[in-house]
Write a structure and sequence with these properties.
The chain is α/β, with parallel strands linked by helices and 427 residues long. It has a domain of 196 residues: Rossmann fold, CATH 3.40.50. The strands form three sheets. A six-stranded mixed sheet has the order 4-5-13-10-11-12, sandwiched between helices.
């Protein structure tokens, strides 16, 4: 008998591991996955995870390496590219810009479809196939749709993706279409898309793969497990991540709780969830110690976190509380400047990713993060997810951004090349 089960986080109602519902049938609350304590824990479990990493190197999935913590009974049914195995980068330029000399970047944009969503999608699509789902669906600001489309194609299942019309970066929309998903442009924002997707789940029997699906959370947990492994299981002081629908915040909190309970780590990092100021309902609730849940009409250039009513709110509240974490918000200008520095350092990321870096800088200035503390900032998406944001920033003329690097038109002469080089040296 499987030691894995689903439990409602609101009322405690339990379902079997292979029940296809993604919400509690008793109270409509969100479900969470509970695993039996592994047969080995502590150093022995670390050695098991480390052994798989050494044996398979980069060919193996950075999700399914942690099978016991993800979905122990799925070993023979896995749908995988593989995903994960993303780098943990030192970046002196970012350390200088943020003022954090021990800053590291966990670059999830180097997953197969260019975002962290692949970690959750490999598990959720695996589960979809296990429960006999005949069609998959999601609402998306871009990355979820791209990832679902790719994994659905790999699994041979039809997919329906609902996106807010005119609010999805072209790179992400192109992926969703190219990978074969039926793509619906909904006249409304992401929250309207998610409401519609939920109705489709109930009325049309589609298997929903947004982060309300608890199996998505199990895959996304491995961001934390992998970065801990890369640090030889020595926990950092802080993990800073962008926050939109809050699935990642919830996943990171769950990963840290299990890592501590299973003896993988002795110290628990603090979580810092960073929202865009124009889409910051979670930050507003945090300022009131989560006394009430806020909803907003979201407006930010960081389309991946342009969400006004985050679905994983309750899970994320628990994650922040259990890790003594914080929630903050940064402006679009701060996000774009951080992105320009990340890009210029040769790392690159989409706008929402840069919120984590801008947030780390702000939290240092506010005295929340200490200068000598070890901080891991999560970059959630690839630079090419939103190329339009790059050209807009660098070609803006009035006022010209501090880190702008506009292309220069010249005549076909060496003198023109020399002129441009001299003007660059003079800056």
């Amino acid at each position: 008998m499987s030691g894995t089960r689903q439990r409602c986080a609101s009322c405690g109602h339990e379902l079997a591991e292979t029940d296809a519902q993604v919400r509690c049938p008793a109270c409509h609350g969100l479900l969470e996955i509970l695993h039996a304590r592994p047969a080995v824990t502590g150093a022995a479990l670390r050695a098991r995870f480390d052994g798989r990493r050494v044996e398979n190197a980069a060919r193996d999935s950075g999700v399914w390496r942690f099978l016991e913590a993800v979905l122990p009974t799925a070993a023979r049914e896995i749908v995988s590219y593989p995903e994960g195995n993303t780098p943990l980068l030192e970046c002196p330029a970012l350390a200088r810009w943020t003022g954090l000399p021990r800053l590291l970047l966990k670059h999830e944009g180097l997953n197969p479809t260019g975002s962290f969503k692949d970690r959750g999608m490999t598990v959720a699509v695996t589960q979809a196939r296990r429960v006999g789902a005949t069609a998959l669906a999601c609402a998306s600001t871009g990355n979820t749709g791209a990832s679902l489309a790719a994994y659905a194609g790999l699994a041979g299942l039809p997919a329906l993706v609902m996106v807010p019309q005119g609010q999805v970066a072209l790179g992400k929309l192109a992926q969703t279409i190219a990978y074969g998903a039926r793509t619906l442009l909904v006249r409304g924002n992401f929250d309207a898309c998610l409401d519609l997707a939920e109705q489709a789940r109930v009325r049309l029997g589609l298997y929903l793969l947004n982060s309300i699906n608890p199996f998505r959370i199990e895959g996304q947990k491995t961001i934390v497990l992998e970065l801990l492994q890369q640090l030889d299981w020595a926990a950092p002081d802080w993990i800073v991540l962008p926050a939109g629908n809050l699935g990642n915040t919830a996943a990171c909190g769950k990963a840290l709780a299990e890592a501590r309970d299973w003896g993988l780590i002795t110290d628990t990092p603090r979580l810092a969830a960073v929202q865009a100021a124009g889409a910051a309902p979670f930050a507003a609730s945090f300022r009131e110690r989560f006394a009430r849940r806020h909803r907003v009409e979201p407006r930010t250039v960081a389309s991946a976190i342009n969400i006004g009513n985050p679905a994983s709110y309750d899970r994320a509240v628990r994650a922040i509380r259990e890790t003594n974490g914080v929630v903050t918000a940064v402006t679009d200008a701060e996000i774009l400047e951080a992105k320009a520095v990340v890009d210029g350092a040769g790392v690159g990321c989409e706008p929402a990713s840069a919120a984590s870096v801008a947030g780390a800088r702000q939290l240092l200035r506010d005295g929340v993060i200490g200068r000598e503390q070890r901080v891991v900032a999560v970059l959630t998406g690839h630079l090419l997810k939103d190329p339009d944001s790059v050209t807009r920033y660098h070609q803006q003329a009035d006022p010209r951004p501090a880190y702008a690097n506009p292309p220069v038109e010249i005549g076909p002469t060496l003198g023109e090349v020399e002129r441009v080089l001299r003007s660059r040296d003079a800056r």
